[in-house]
Design goal:
The protein contains 13 helices and 49 strands. The protein has 834 residues and is α+β, with helices and mostly antiparallel strands. This is Prolyl oligopeptidase family serine peptidase.
């Protein structure tokens, strides 16, 4: 089924609704939910029409792979100025890697460049505000500034060569900032700066010790000079202790957290009287042998660059949570044993399967699991959040085995963690959808959770049940609470999986409202006075521009920036159509972009078409959406191929983002299998609906897309006639821990999953043309991945592969010459094989 897109919105119901019903979810939670009013029901695949093809000048490969400056340099890192009437954004200089900073009034289309000597005056995207919203604090180049929003006066609080960070207003109006692990408090009325807390990663000094050994005791007894020196030191130590205890002018702020530890997070209460600190044992991020040779250096030598360790070398870690009371100067460790499931053997079935393969029997037993703070991938907030009055704090934790997420508060009387919400997933907890916080001036939490099968928004009082504030077959993200608790704004793909708009819900009544209706990909930032939205909006054929709108239902947006070049607008680019490809393995369709040649006629017969399927990277990424893609070069390459008669398909295979928990976790312990099945459905759809010859289809992709190219060519060798794998993963045991262990567990626990999912184990299946493009200074997917696979192919006596190396390129290519060389090879491969 194809959904066309145009500027006017027309909701289109699916012809066969049952074909897109979503599968059930195995995620569980320990809360019961009551549903409040939701958005009006719309068909899951209702959609707007995509734009028509634009421009008249054919794109060339040289132009598509050129420095993207020719497209225009779009605004980035945009944020509101403190007055809520102007915005700040960066724009890259033409022909340079430097950025210029601009300020623009929202009622004007003209931006003013901020001079270098004024950069400290314009605030920051992570500025913080006092509780009465009259003061703003931020850092610039490691120094702290405070702006009075009533008078406009700007004060520089620090001017040091050290780096100050994380400004925070206390409830009494004082300002706190950090310098490393030292917290300083500033009385903004008097200007007095006080050291509030000094967290020391060392054992507490023992002070002067009495002689303990036989020889030492005899020395003090027999030698008067030694005994006198000891007494003098003892007197001096006692006097210093008395001065520190009785003289209030002296900072006495040290808290010793133990040698060999690192601080993962420290959050001060808004009253400045308590601190929650999370510690881990210090552990190197790499081993001595984790190096990557760089052959192209300034001095002609070989540089051994340090790189991270592999998941196969990772060791379990667990954290310690410490409550520090700054009033009575006590520090109390908080155990994880009050969290439900803290000692469950959640991998028992996996271990049984792996033991059985070795002829062994696994006996399950309970044991404390490694538990740490939630991984901060795109979280954009602290994983520890105090409520407004500082009486409660919430901490988001995750298990080392990736199967559980907890939101816990603290019972300060009993000195123990209290689980407010447990999200369990038999596969893994997503690293997205983990935002949470407190409603203002209350003890009610709000948070995102996938427990329904989709990321939805919930609220929960400390001693009550959770309530769903949103529900449906769509994903909620990027939540912002207003200061009067009247609304939580969020981004969601309600009308179609690939169309994102801004919505809001009243957390008291549960009433949801749609805010924007821009038909594309839209992100937002709420203004400081909460009256307006700064929107970052793009469409399939149009890069991101800035818009502004009133923060109200069904708002009208005004465009602020026009940065796309006339040269780009003149190019003839093919707008892909959004297709719902029926799946052979799930009730949910596989959404895909399809690029049609200009001479293509729906239902044509006689002439058969050749085709290419592009595999996006990152695994958990969405690319068949209505906005501008990070794969803009590929978009132009696909337009070029369409101009030459190819049908090009870009699939959001299973594991892609935007389609719910079950779609995300379909690859658990079997990476490459569901995706290859989806590619096969894509080829079948093109044969049935686009007149494609199944013997004239190629595939390519980079990173995860390169891995998928391998898996398709190795495990389904008749599906494609050729494939190009760019910066590809060949053995998941060599990839990083944070990503891989989610999906495949750890190699020491689940080697079956790694062998089932790694292309190097299936290389004997290759019988079609393969191109491997490998950057040599890639610190994400190591060059070694390609080297090991090439050796494997050589030993298997395969003759139909070739390798291109790129000596100066990292994972994301930088040089236009490298981009051009790479895509010339891909283009040539398809020309020769299809």
């Amino acid at each position: 089924m194809i959904f066309n897109l145009s500027s006017s919105k027309t909701l289109v119901a699916l012809a066969v609704t049952s074909s897109i019903m979503l599968a059930g979810c195995s995620a569980t939670a320990n809360t019961s939910l009551s549903q409040q009013s939701a958005l009006p029901a719309t068909p899951v695949a209702a959609v707007v029409n995509t734009p028509a093809d634009a421009g008249s000048q054919n794109i060339t490969l040289e132009q598509a792979m050129a420095n993207p400056d020719w497209i225009g340099n779009q605004p980035k890192n945009a944020y509101w100025a403190s007055d809520s009437t102007s915005i700040i954004y960066a724009q890259k200089q033409q022909g340079s890697t430097l950025n210029d900073i601009y300020s623009q009034q929202i009622n004007s289309k003209n931006a003013q460049q901020v001079s270098l000597d004024k950069l400290h005056t314009i605030g920051a995207s992570k500025a913080v505000y006092s509780s009465d919203r009259t003061l703003q604090a931020y850092t610039f180049k490691g120094n702290v500034f405070v702006k009075n929003l009533t008078t406009g006066e700007l004060k520089q609080i620090t001017a040091t060569s050290a780096t100050e960070s994380k400004p925070q207003f206390l409830n009494n109006g004082d300002l706190v900032y950090r310098q490393g692990n030292v917290f300083f408090k500033v009385d903004l009325k008097t200007g007095l700066t006080t050291e509030l807390v000094n967290l020391k990663l060392a054992d507490e000094p023992k002070g002067l010790q009495e002689p303990s050994s036989y020889l030492a005791k005899e020395q003090h007894k027999l030698i008067e000079f030694v005994a006198l020196q000891h007494k003098n030191k003892q007197d001096s130590q006692t006097r210093n202790e008395q001065i520190n205890a009785q003289n209030s002018s002296i900072a006495n702020t040290a808290f010793y957290l133990g040698d060999g530890n690192v601080i993962k997070e420290a959050q001060l209460s808004p009253n400045g009287d308590a601190l929650i600190v999370v510690l881990q044992k210090q552990q190197s991020w790499r081993d001595k042998g984790d190096i990557m040779p760089n052959y192209i250096t300034n001095d002609g030598t070989i540089e051994p660059k340090k790189v991270r360790r592999r998941v196969a070398d990772a060791k379990e870690q667990t954290s310690r949570v410490i409550h520090i009371n700054l009033v009575d100067r006590t520090q109390t460790p908080l155990s994880f044993d009050t969290l439900p499931g803290f000692d469950e053997d959640v991998l028992a079935e996996v271990k049984k399967e792996n033991y059985a393969r070795e002829g062994k029997t696994y006996k399950s037993k309970k044991s404390p699991r490694g538990i740490n703070l939630i991984t901060n991938w795109g979280l954009n907030q602290a994983p520890i959040v105090w409520n407004d009055d500082g009486t409660q704090v919430a901490i988001m934790l995750e298990a080392w085995d990736n199967k559980d997420r907890w939101i816990a508060t603290i019972d300060f009387d009993k000195n123990q963690l209290v689980s407010q919400h447990r999200l369990h997933d038999d596969a893994w907890i997503a690293y997205a959808f983990n935002n949470f916080g407190w409603l203002h001036n209350s003890n009610t939490l709000y948070y995102l959770s996938e427990e329904s099968g989709y990321s939805q928004l919930y609220k929960k009082p400390l001693n009550g049940k959770a309530t769903a504030l949103t529900s449906g077959q769509f994903e909620v993200s990027d939540i912002t609470l207003t200061h009067d608790n009247s609304a939580i704004y969020y981004k969601a793909n309600v009308e179609h999986p690939g169309l994102y708009e801004i919505y809001r819900v009243n957390p008291q009544t549960g009433k949801n409202e749609q805010i924007t209706d821009l038909n594309g990909m839209t992100d937002y930032t709420l203004s400081p006075d909460e009256s307006k939205l700064l929107l970052k909006h793009s469409k399939i054929t149009m890069p991101t521009e800035l818009y502004v709108a009133d923060a109200k239902a069904n708002t009208q947006a005004t465009r602020l920036t026009y940065t796309v070049s006339e040269e780009f607008l003149a190019k003839k680019l093919t707008a892909p159509k959004i297709v719902a490809v029926p799946s052979s393995h799930t009730d949910q369709p596989i959404y895909a972009k399809v690029y049609y040649p200009s001479d293509y006629v729906e239902g044509e017969s006689g002439k058969t078409r050749k085709a290419v399927i592009f595999n996006h990277g990152a695994g958990y990424l969405q690319n068949s959406h209505m906005g501008w893609s990070v794969y803009f070069r590929e978009f132009m390459f696909h337009s070029l191929l369409a101009d030459e008669g190819y049908i090009v398909m870009d699939m959001d295979y299973r594991a892609s983002k935007g389609y719910g928990r079950d779609w995300r976790t379909a690859i658990y312990r079997q990476m490459g299998t569901p995706e290859t099945q989806d590619l096969a459905d894509g080829v079948k759809w093109m044969a049935q609906n686009a007149n494609v010859d199944t013997n004239a289809v190629g595939t390519y992709g980079g990173s995860y897309g390169g891995f998928m190219t391998f898996m398709a060519l190795f495990t389904a060798p008749e599906l494609f006639q050729s494939g190009a794998a760019l910066r590809p993963v060949t053995d998941w045991a060599h990839y990083n821990t944070a990503y891989t262990a989610n999906i495949l567990n750890h190699p020491d626990v689940d080697p079956i999953a790694y062998e089932r999912s790694s292309p190097i184990y299936f290389a004997e299946g290759l019988n079609k043309r393969l191109l491997i493009n490998a950057p040599m200074v890639d610190d994400n997917v190591f060059f070694q991945d390609s080297v090991r696979l090439v050796q494997r192919l050589i030993e298997l006596e395969k003759q139909n592969f070739e390798t291109a190396i790129f000596p100066v390129e990292p994972h994301g290519f930088v040089q236009p010459s490298s981009w051009l060389d790479e895509y010339r090879r891909i283009y040539k491969l398809f020309k020769e094989t299809l």
